[in-house]
Amino acid sequence: MTKKKAHNTRMRFAFAVLALLTSLDAYAAPVIHGIRPGYAFRFGPSHVTITGSGFAEPVQVFVGDVPAVVREVTPTSLRITIVPSVDGAPRAHGEEAALRIVMPGVGAATMARAVTFVDSTEGAENYVLYLVPFTTEIIPGANGSRWTGELTFYNGGVFDSEIAGSFSDPDRLSPPGPLYIDLHPGQTMKPDLFASGVSAGAFVQVPKPLDETTMISLRVRDLSRNAASWGTDIPIVAEEDTAQQVTLIDIPTDPQYRAMLRIYHWSGLDTLPSRVTIYSPDHPEPVATFDVTSTAPGGFWEPVEGDLPFYPSYAQIDLLTPAVRAAGPTIRVEVDNKGSNVSPPLPSLWAFVSVTNNDTQQVTIMTPR
Questions:
Q1: Helix, strand, coil: what percent of the chain each, to 5?
Q2: What is the reported pTM?
Q3: 127 burial class (0-12, 13-18, 19+ CB within 10 angstroms)?
Q4: DSSP H or E stretch at residue 77
Q5: Which of 6, 177, 264, 341 could form a disulfide with 312 if both were Cys (CB 3.0 to 4.6 A apart)?
Q6: Residue 165 CB contacts under 8 Å (≥ 6 apart), including other chains
């Protein structure tokens, strides 16, 4: 072998060793630093984040002996969903399980007693967020009417459902955060919500695993006319139903009606702007435009990651001014977050109009299409 060939052979060997060392470093054994939150629903599923180092695909994660669903992999974090046990039996309350990460051909890591199974778990991502547009306090209305909202839950599943919300508690004068109520299988409950200002509404949270089996309804009734009407159903709105703009059509302007526009923002900010534009079906130009600021009652919730919100930012407008009534028999109402020129976009909103007959006090709800 010539000196040149020997030199080339040594260089190729050195490059191969360097590539091997680099490869081994890139696929170092995984290390677990922590898990957040360290709790999971005992009936699953729950979404958690594992922090550490050396994570790469392919990777398997086990909670106890049960495989978890891996949703996202980065070198320093794993987002997983903890699922119910394979045989479908619920975990025991307070049961602890080890967390084990396996990277085939690379290595494994284990954290003992990493997850505790409980009836409810922390973190907003484990709940479906619903808006209850009215609280259950008694609200005086026009012509001697007295309005109340009757909130009803029903658990049609086989597991207890711990629902979070601003529920009444005689031992608490002011709510520091959402409370939880136990809703047992087959149980119907009519809980009271904390007063949040005149008809401003409140949020409730249903555990994601039980969302399909937990039913919620809200009926608004005029207590001064109980015998005449059972009331009106008000939509319970999920966060996924919100938008940057909502449109409400065919709002009657006849003098026998009054119409109240109610605007809700999914945000912990104390004040948020909106623009309300009113159109007549016969004219392309707006009949009227209002700039409105919604307010979060009491500022009870600061937007901290993982927190469960308490109340929405809220505003209301009496729509039927003399100019609007003169525009035609019906109007179209559009509500947006101050127009498309705002950057970044403001939080999502929802709105509806309650149309009340002055003679009968019958309420009709106009919702976005």
A1: 10, 45, 40
A2: 0.75
A3: buried
A4: strand 77-82
A5: 264
A6: 132, 178, 179, 181, 191, 193, 202, 203, 204, 205
For residue 123, how far is the Cα from the chain centroid?
11
Structural domains present in the chain? 10-118 (2.60.40.10), 124-366 (no CATH)
Q: Which helix (H) or strand (E) holds 131?
A: strand 127-132
Tell me the one-letter amino acid at 2. T
State the distance between the two ends of the chain, measured CA to CA, in whole angstroms: 83
Which amino acid, 198?
A: V
CB 349 within 8 A of CB 265: yes
Residue of 229, 263, 187 whose CA lies nearest to 362: 229
Nearest alpha-carbon partner for 133 in 71, 218, 25: 218
Residue bearing tokens 């084990």: 100
Place of tokens 């409730």: 204
Rounded CA separation 216/150 (Å): 11
| Residue whose C-alpha is closest to residue 321's, from 244, 261, 240, 249 | 261
Pairing of strands 39-41, 107-118: parallel
What are the tokens at 125?
Answer: 């991502």
Q: How far is C-alpha 303 from the geometric centre of its chain's CA atoms?
A: 13
For residue 57, give Cα distances in angstroms to 39, 80, 113, 114, 307: 25, 13, 25, 22, 31
Pick the closest to residue 313 from 345, 343, 349, 354 (CA basis): 349
Q: pLDDT tens digits, residue range 183-234?
A: 888 999 998 877 655 567 888 989 888 888 899 999 988 887 655 567 889 9
Helix (H) or strand (E) segment spanning residue 365: strand 363-366
Tokens of 343: 């950057």
Q: What is the pLDDT of residues 85-96, one digit of tens each?
A: 767 677 888 899
Nearest C-alpha neighbor of 369 from the set 247, 251, 260: 247
